[in-house]
Design goal:
Length: 60
């Protein structure tokens, strides 16, 4: 199993757990907020590199 698949499975499991214990708005805030905050902590050169790699991967 690839690393990305493991991350996706963990994210789904965490999302289901949060869905049960927290209100909907809190779950949405966490699911959207955490990746956004992580992206914003990157410096501009890292953001450019991430966008470039993502576009290359889509072409495969």
């Amino acid at each position: 199993m690839s690393t990305n698949a493991k991350i996706a499975i963990g994210g789904v499991a965490l999302g289901l757990f949060l869905w049960i214990w927290l209100p909907f708005w809190a779950v949405v805030l966490i699911v959207v907020g955490v990746p956004t905050a992580a992206y914003l902590t990157l410096d501009p050169s890292q953001r450019r590199r991430l966008r470039r790699i993502t576009r290359k991967e889509l072409g495969r």
